[in-house]
Amino acid sequence: MKSVLCVVSLIFVVLGCGDEGERISVAEPQLRGYPFVDGTQFNRIADGTQFNRIAEIGVKSTVVLYQHRGDYTVFRGTGFVVDTHIIVTVYHLVDRMETHDRLSVWSVLDSSERHFVTISETNPDLDLAILESAEPLNLPHLQLGNSDDIFVGQPIYIISNPQKNLGTFSVGIISAVRPLNEETKIIQYAAPISSGSSGAALMDWYGTVIGVVSWGVTDANDVEYAIPINYVKDLLSRNSL
């Protein structure tokens, strides 16, 4: 938890202490082939077919995370499936585990689809955690995109469990790409989420994951942050997951 607070504190340093006129480097938009450029997708927005498709992709791969201690079960938040045995979530949901505690993930669509999981890998500084199930997860896998290609103003989509409202679909935009340090960036976005949404997939127009919902500013409206998915991909590849 201390690591997360350090990262959050660093965000406020970055946002509040820059020199006047300082510019934050953001990758140029990759507009070629993007669905809004030639207007061909507007009819799909109007009738909702693409929104339905994204929601269907996301909700089938989204899970609820629970922590078990003795006879008590505590709702922790959200995660998403990326492989037959692998779930991605955020570290601050699992950092209070004690020796005899257990974690389980449940499908948001089918409560009978539930599995106990272990913490396979973590990166507290980036607020990332990889969970692993001994049994195969009978759930679809979300595809991981390339967060280097995101741009300010890009629409984003989230399936999460805010306030225990399972499988809630939220829509928003990328507000900024902020540097945490010389090597690390964070995605700032605007979307209606709340407690319980942490660990959810931040998806693009095609339903691929470009980030992981992490934290927000409690006294501001729609100032939320997500971890770029490329850091997740690095964590998975380094540990052969």
Radius of gyration, in Å, reads: 18 Å
H and E order:
HHHEEEEEEEEEEEEH
The gross shape turns out to be globular
Distance between the termini: 25 Å
Largest sheet, strands/sense/barrel: 6 strands, antiparallel, barrel
Give me the side-by-side strand order of the main sheet.
Answer: 1-2-3-6-5-4
Structural class: alpha+beta
Compute the average pLDDT. Answer: 82
Total helical segments: 4
Low-pLDDT runs: 1-38
Structural account:
The chain is α+β, with helices and mostly antiparallel strands and 241 residues long. The chain is 18% helix and 35% strand. It is built from 4 helices and 12 strands. Strands 1-2-3-6-5-4 form a 6-stranded antiparallel beta barrel. The protein has a 6-stranded antiparallel barrel with strand order 7-8-9-12-11-10. β10 and β11 form a beta hairpin. The longest helix has 15 residues. The radius of gyration is 18 Å and the shape is globular. The two termini are 25 Å apart.
